[in-house]
Design goal:
The protein has about 110 residues and is mainly beta. It has one domain: Sandwich (Immunoglobulin-like). About 15% of the residues lie in helices and about 40% in strands. The chain is built from 1 helix and 7 strands. The chain has one helix at about 1-15; strands spanning about 25-35, 45-50, 55, 65-70, 75-80, 85-90, 95-105. The strands form 2 sheets. Strands 3-2-5-6 form a 4-stranded antiparallel beta sheet, with no helix packed on it. A 3-stranded mixed beta sheet has the order 4-1-7, with no helix packed on it. The chain is rod-shaped. The chain starts with a helix and ends in a 5-residue tail after the last strand.
Amino acid sequence: MKRTLLFIIALIALATSCEPVTYDTFCGITGTVVDVDSGELIQGALVILSPGGYNTYTGSDGYFEFLDLDVHQYSVEVSKTGYYANRKYITPDAGRVVNVKLTMQKKNE
């Protein structure tokens, strides 16, 4: 009985000495890419996230996403043949997903 009591006390002491676990240390960035003049969604645009070297392409709905990111400032750059590239700087808060709208303008050819 004495050993069990000592074990319980030691377990409680250990549990209360640990720092609480925080799950809100990550963030995300999602968004759409649209033509600045027509407002049409742009499919197949390359979206590059820096730092980190992440990249993806927009879907048929112009949508992209980067999830489970560390919290700090990011540069989101979009490019596609026939359009001028565009860039935005975003600093998401911990535990949040920021939704952005990036516009692109067609080049006059």
